Amino acid sequence: MEWKKGNTFGTVAFTSYGFFWLTLVGIVSLPKTGLMAPAGEGSMVAFLIMWGIFTAILFVGTLKLTRALQFIFGSLTLLFILLGLGDATGNETIKHLAGWEGIICGASAMYAAAAQILNEIYGREVLPLG
């Protein structure tokens, strides 16, 4: 409901990443059902790198926002790049590094969500967002 607050950044981010997950589920699941052909070789690499570029653009937007959001979007950009490189090269080390990076990114997003909730509820800074 970020659009109701006039938060264009939040609206774009939540809507876009919601569609990312729906699309990813479709790309992975639909070929298994026979409803579509599997994606071509290299298409997942292109998909992930495209999302990395989009996320990098959003990261630039966070430079006027909190340090917490900067970290989330910076680490998410790195995550998409690592995932794309891992798929492009087949390098297991890069894939494992991407997994750890994803855990760090997800944990930082959970921290920021907790901070926003607790800071609003208590009317003061309980957890800093920077």
UniProtKB/TrEMBL annotation:
<protein>
    <submittedName>
        <fullName>Uncharacterized protein</fullName>
    </submittedName>
</protein>
<feature type="transmembrane region" description="Helical">
    <location>
        <begin position="68"/>
        <end position="85"/>
    </location>
</feature>
<feature type="transmembrane region" description="Helical">
    <location>
        <begin position="12"/>
        <end position="30"/>
    </location>
</feature>
<dbReference type="InterPro" id="IPR000791">
    <property type="entry name" value="Gpr1/Fun34/SatP-like"/>
</dbReference>
<dbReference type="InterPro" id="IPR047623">
    <property type="entry name" value="SatP"/>
</dbReference>
<keyword id="KW-1133">Transmembrane helix</keyword>
<feature type="transmembrane region" description="Helical">
    <location>
        <begin position="42"/>
        <end position="61"/>
    </location>
</feature>
<keyword id="KW-0812">Transmembrane</keyword>
<dbReference type="Pfam" id="PF01184">
    <property type="entry name" value="Gpr1_Fun34_YaaH"/>
</dbReference>
<keyword id="KW-0472">Membrane</keyword>
<comment type="similarity">
    <text>Belongs to the acetate uptake transporter (AceTr) (TC 2.A.96) family.</text>
</comment>
